[in-house]
Amino acid sequence: MIAFVRGNVAAVTLSSAVVEVGGVGLELMCTPGTLAQLRTGRQATLPTSMVVREDSLTLYGFADDDEKVMFELAQTASGVGPKLAQAMLAVLSPDGLRTAIASDDVKTLTRVPGIGQKGAQRIILELKDRIGAPSGSAAGSTTTGAAAWRDQVHQGLVGLGYNARDAEKAVDAVADEAGGASPDVGALLRAALRTLSKA
């Protein structure tokens, strides 16, 4: 299996990045948060997880090893496939996910598209004993999340090829949707892209 990929970022799309490794462009499916950290033409190292199906080989890329571990662990719960596991990490940080599962927080898990109340309860039941304790950065990341979402969304838009001024306007346009202590960066990035496509 491919444990990680290192190379120049050839392209960044809404849901994936292409990393050139030895003259071959590998497409990695990534969360918006991970994509926001990548810059076309710059070198990147991404831990990866390969999902093998009868008709496809899909490579998922992550910001760090913790995200990769949570992605693989989430799939051990019944009814959770790679796309849902990735959606969980797009909405919640690995520590946010651990905290939600450890504290039986069904409401937080149902913020993930595709997870209903029964699904959240099943995930909590099946993963609670295996998920591990939060590393303690969850509380800190909440406060930085509130302050840093603008920068992450801005970087994501610039990484997708928009100029800095347009990106700034789009960030301002979606600022009202940020609300709360830990705004959903992925949703805000998608909202900003919608704003730009209308313009």
Automatic annotation (TrEMBL):
SMART domains (UniProt xref): HhH1
Native organism: Nocardioides vastitatis
Gene3D superfamilies per UniProt: 5' to 3' exonuclease, C-terminal subdomain (1.10.150.20), DNA helicase RuvA subunit, C-terminal domain (1.10.8.10), Nucleic acid-binding proteins (2.40.50.140)
Family membership noted in the UniProt record: Belongs to the RuvA family.
Gene Ontology molecular function: DNA helicase activity; hydrolase activity
Major subcellular location class: cytoplasm
Pfam families for this protein: HHH_5, RuvA_C, RuvA_N
Protein name (Swiss-Prot/TrEMBL): Holliday junction branch migration complex subunit RuvA
Residue numbers spanned by region Domain III: 147-199
HAMAP family listed in its UniProt record: DNA_HJ_migration_RuvA (MF_00031)
Oligomer status and interactors: Homotetramer. Forms an RuvA(8)-RuvB(12)-Holliday junction (HJ) complex. HJ DNA is sandwiched between 2 RuvA tetramers; dsDNA enters through RuvA and exits via RuvB. An RuvB hexamer assembles on each DNA strand where it exits the tetramer. Each RuvB hexamer is contacted by two RuvA subunits (via domain III) on 2 adjacent RuvB subunits; this complex drives branch migration. In the full resolvosome a probable DNA-RuvA(4)-RuvB(12)-RuvC(2) complex forms which resolves the HJ.
Domain notes per entry: Has three domains with a flexible linker between the domains II and III and assumes an 'L' shape. Domain III is highly mobile and contacts RuvB.
Entry function: The RuvA-RuvB-RuvC complex processes Holliday junction (HJ) DNA during genetic recombination and DNA repair, while the RuvA-RuvB complex plays an important role in the rescue of blocked DNA replication forks via replication fork reversal (RFR). RuvA specifically binds to HJ cruciform DNA, conferring on it an open structure. The RuvB hexamer acts as an ATP-dependent pump, pulling dsDNA into and through the RuvAB complex. HJ branch migration allows RuvC to scan DNA until it finds its consensus sequence, where it cleaves and resolves the cruciform DNA.
SUPFAM superfamilies reported for this sequence: DNA helicase RuvA subunit, C-terminal domain (SSF46929), Nucleic acid-binding proteins (SSF50249), RuvA domain 2-like (SSF47781)
Domain of life: Bacteria
Boundaries of every Helix-hairpin-helix DNA-binding motif class domain copy: 72-91, 107-126
InterPro entries attached to this UniProt entry: DNA_helicase_Holl-junc_RuvA_I, Hlx-hairpin-Hlx_DNA-bd_motif, NA-bd_OB-fold, RuvA, RuvA_2-like, RuvA_C, RuvA_C_sf
The UniProt record lists the keyword DNA damage: yes
Swiss-Prot/TrEMBL keywords: Cytoplasm, DNA damage, DNA recombination, DNA repair, DNA-binding, Hydrolase
Location(s) in or outside the cell: Cytoplasm
CDD domains: UBA_RuvA_C
